[in-house]
Amino acid sequence: MTQHTHRAQAPEDLQAGWTAVDAYLTDQLAPGDETLDAALAASDEAGLPKIAVAPNQGKLLHLLARVQGARTILEIGTLGGYSTIWLARALPPDGRLISLEYDPAHAELARLNLDRAGLNEVAAVRTGAALDTLPKLEAEGAGPFDLVFIDADKKNNPRYVEWALRLTRPGSVIVVDNVVRGGRVVDAESSDEAILGTREMFDLVARDPRLDATAIQTVGSKGYDGLLIARVVF
């Protein structure tokens, strides 16, 4: 009898494989265009951290918004506006997207990228701490939003979900990015604020009867992570 031994792949081998598959999937199903490529290039040139969503994940956000029939979208965490472009492109001509960005330089670059994309009529970027801006949106009657995408500082994820509930309606969808944290989300003893915030967010979603949710693990060019998708029930 022939015995086969399997060598465990090194983490760098796994990452190379995930990245190669992401490139294949992107080429097949979510090819870039001048506008999206320019947004990434401008972000790189400005020295922004390379933490924008991967192209196939941007396409997922776009499809979620389309399937949802979203007319109003709230994004918490803009960075250079790459995900904002994917989401805004899913809106009808009279749709509206509001994106919240803490860093003024990032916000200004995102506005330039949205203008280049021809989306400045439907997408607006507001500068400041989201927890300061969200009450202003509520006071303005900016909601309800059909879809909320949360991709900002992870320690405040529970508060962002709470605000998302206040600014949505039954049937709205809430998406939270980076919820697996390379697998570290299971570490109940962690002192990392991002892990603590993410775990508190899961506890909140799990116990709130207004939310019906699941989370999936992902691997790809951005490493090992995942996202939560929730539907507002009532």
What does this structure look like?
This protein is an alpha/beta fold. The chain is 43% helix and 22% strand. Strands 3-2-1-4-5-7-6 form a seven-stranded mixed sheet, sandwiched between helices. Strand 4 (145-150), helix 7 (157-166) and strand 5 form a beta-alpha-beta unit. Helix 2 packs antiparallel against helix 5 and helix 7 (157-166) packs parallel to helix 8. The radius of gyration is 18 Å and the shape is globular. The chain starts with 10 loop residues before the first helix and ends with a strand. The model has no long low-confidence stretch (mean pLDDT 95).
Biggest sheet: strand arrangement: 3-2-1-4-5-7-6
How much strand content do the residues show?
Answer: 15-25%
Which outline best applies?
globular
The count of strands amounts to 7
Please work out how many helical segments DSSP would assign.
8
How widely separated are the two ends? 61 Å
Instruction: Work out the helicity level.
Output: 40-55%
Structural class: alpha/beta
Average residue pLDDT: 95
Q: Which residues sit in consecutive blocks of at least 5 with pLDDT less than 50?
A: none
Rg from Cα: 18 Å
Main β-sheet description: 7 strands, mixed
Helix and strand sequence? HHHEHEHEHEHEHEE
